[in-house]
Specification:
This protein has 656 residues and is mainly beta. The protein is built from 2 helices and 43 strands.
Length: 656
């Protein structure tokens, strides 16, 4: 149905209407004339104000910006986020009734800012420039469309519309439109009280231009609205960290009459998604058996994207891995099912370029050959680097080190992320070596106040048990040592029970031929004993030595220390030191126990700077000397002042 400029009104009504307009007192919004930055509108709409870079607002009202307003409520309209929302209108926004000059009763033609039918059409536009936060991929907002064109002008050329346009540099331009002809008027005047669009034809028939008021009647509803619509997601895709432009426009179509309004609030970015790269690496000796010179090693690298956003093939390499020392790249062995992999001969490294889709992995492989000249026991170690885009700005700004998940955590945080179990290098030892004649534990690489462990070329042969006693000490000591950086401290009381050193000589494929250690002891004024029992895997004794503090009755050295060994025939026998009476002073001594034939054991005592001070031969105990499994430390005393011993430069000799 067409809008008609004249209606079937009586002359009397026209005169009355003219008198009514002449007698009205007009009010105006306290706004600035001319274009302005529209920041108040933008802040009322945005959920996160920090995303706003700039804004601007224009409309066709030459008397000020009455076509937009910030409100905390308007009838049934309420903020969907925060305390305010914005309302844009083709007439005066926020009026109590959308009639000409907001009169009640009044003409439903509304307020216009040019001629009724001419151009430009009444229009209001808010433009916002926004920064998309990291990891956000969609723009959302809440919108509601209200119009006095309903119901009589649905399906005509008088098609007022609200358009929201989002311009994304990466995703292009997207629009959401709602207009009169969409027919999405689920609410009429009865359902939107207080909005200004709750108007009713006085005649009860809204089929033409009417004088309306706010008195509900049925029939007669002469305004309508959509419901509150959440818009976003796939409608407006964006990319993290980019700058987008959001344009909100409401406009008359066909003429400048019959006002429409657009509610908008809670504009936000969401769709949290991010890239997360994890890289693991393993190595396999393709020749099997022990790793030896001339063997071929195959490295397998898995680069996984555990996130929900694709890692694209950005400028620069997505992966680099230097060929490890003591090896040579096998030409043509680099393989990747996806992307491009190659060998950079100038820099002796593998490089790969490609994408990694969300929740997907890329597998890379390459081979190296161990050089003929590789020394015995050499460590072959390397670690690749995956380069990836943390914030989706097209630049690989993050590095993920490869992790060998087939080995124990090395306790070192290589990549600075606070974790030590996600960045272990891939190590392999060359075991083509002459078996060692002896191995050493000097405690220099152990954690102070903790347990001690020692490996030989990756094979663990020694560890101490953690001390859980409250009155004793059985731990690595950083404060006092013989020749290395640290030592091992013992301070034991009988009530705390025995402590243990454990040996795994089978990993070295050898048998024990001798055992020795340097130790230091201080003077003490109480009786004390410390026993060291050497045991096999069945708990049988191999050898025994004991340190005894006893009172010799001679001042100033009333209490002195002696070192004894146990012989199955003669019992406990003391080794003499270089002091009268055979006592030990506050100094460093070394005790060595060695196999002598098939049934005897030599005990040798040395002192720092003096060499051997005494030696003796005793009989073998109940178990073979070669089968050492455990050293048990114990005492029968409970001293108030407990003597402290330091042990260092521990060595064991091996035969094969």
């Amino acid at each position: 149905m067409k809008k008609r400029f004249y209606k079937n009104f009586t002359i009397t009504f026209g005169v009355c209407l003219a008198l009514l307009f002449a007698s009205m007192t007009f009010t105006s919004e306290n706004v600035r004339a001319g274009s302005y930055n529209g920041r108040d509108l933008a802040l009322a709409i945005l959920k996160n104000e920090s995303t706003l870079i700039s804004s601007s607002y224009t409309d066709t009202d030459e008397s000020g910006h009455r076509q937009a307003i910030v409100l905390s409520s308007l009838g049934t309209l309420r903020p969907t986020d925060g305390t305010t929302f914005a309302l844009l209108s083709t007439g005066i926004a926020g009026t109590p009734i959308v009639t000409t000059d907001a009169t009640n009763p009044g003409d439903e033609r509304g307020t216009w800012f040019g001629s009724k039918y001419g151009n430009p059409r009444d229009s209001a536009t808010l433009v916002m420039t926004l920064k998309v936060p990291l990891f956000m991929h969609y723009l959302y907002y809440d919108v509601q469309f209200l119009s006095a064109e309903y119901p009589e002008y649905v399906g005509t050329k008088y098609n007022d519309k609200l358009t929201i346009t989002v311009n994304s540099p990466s995703k292009g331009t997207t629009q959401y439109k709602i207009d009169v002809n969409s027919g999405y008027f689920v609410l009429n005047s009865n359902s939107i009280p207080g909005t200004g669009f709750d108007i009713f034809a006085q005649s009860g028939n809204p089929a033409d231009v009417d004088i309306v008021n706010r008195t509900p009647r049925t029939p007669g509803a002469d305004g309508g609205a959509s419901d509150l619509i959440p818009i976003g997601g796939a409608t407006h895709p964006v990319s993290p960290n980019e700058t987008v432009t959001v344009t909100i426009n409401i406009k008359d179509e066909g003429d400048n009459q019959f006002d429409s309004g657009g509610f908008i609030d809670n504009l936000r970015f969401s769709g949290f998604a991010q890239t997360k790269i994890v890289a693991i690496k393993s190595v396999e000796d393709l020749d099997g058996g022990e790793v030896e010179s001339n063997d071929t090693l195959r490295y397998s690298v898995t680069i996984s994207n555990t996130g929900t956003v694709r890692q694209i093939n950005n400028p620069g390499n997505e992966f680099e891995d230097y060929i490890p020392n003591n090896t040579t790249y096998v030409l043509g062995s680099a393989y990747a099912q996806y992307g491009t992999i190659s060998y950079d001969a100038a820099n002796n490294k593998i490089i790969w370029n490609g994408d990694v889709p969300a929740e997907t992995s890329r597998i890379l492989e390459f081979k190296v050959k161990i050089n003929q000249s590789t020394p015995n026991g050499a460590l072959i170690s390397n670690q690749g680097k995956a380069y990836w885009d943390r914030n989706e700005d097209g630049i690989n700004d993050a590095i993920e080190l490869t992790d060998d998940i087939h080995v124990n955590d090395d306790g070192i945080d290589q990549d600075g992320d606070g974790e030590t179990g996600d960045d272990d290098p891939t190590n392999i030892y060359v075991f083509a070596y002459d078996y060692p004649s002896y191995v050493t534990e000097d405690f220099s690489d152990d954690t102070p106040y903790g347990t001690a462990t020692q490996c030989y070329l990756g094979r663990k042969w020694f560890e101490t048990r953690e001390n859980s006693a409250c009155g004793s000490c059985f731990e690595v000591a950083p404060s006092y040592h013989y020749s290395s950086a640290q030592s091992f401290k013992t301070k034991l009381r009988q009530s705390d029970g025995p402590q243990y050193w454990n040996y795994s000589l089978s990993t070295l494929e050898g048998n024990l031929s001798w055992w020795e250690i340097w130790f230091a002891c201080g003077d003490v004024s109480e009786a004390y004993d410390l026993s060291l029992n050497f045991k096999n895997s069945n708990g049988q004794d191999i050898a025994k030595i004991k340190l005894n503090y006893f009172n010799n009755g001679s001042k100033p050295l009333d209490w002195v220390l002696q070192l004894c060994y146990f012989d199955p025939v003669n019992g406990w026998t003391c080794l003499e030191s270089d002091y009268p009476g055979g006592y030990l002073r506050n100094s460093w001594y070394k005790i060595r126990i060695e196999k002598n034939g098939t049934s005897s054991i030599n005990y040798i005592l040395s002192r720092s700077w003096r060499g051997v001070v005494d030696s003796a031969t005793g009989g073998q105990l109940s178990a073979p000397f070669s089968n050492l499994k455990q050293l048990e430390w114990s005492t029968t005393k409970e001293p108030a002042v407990c003597p402290m011993f330091f042990w260092d430069e521990h060595r064991i000799g091996l035969t094969y």
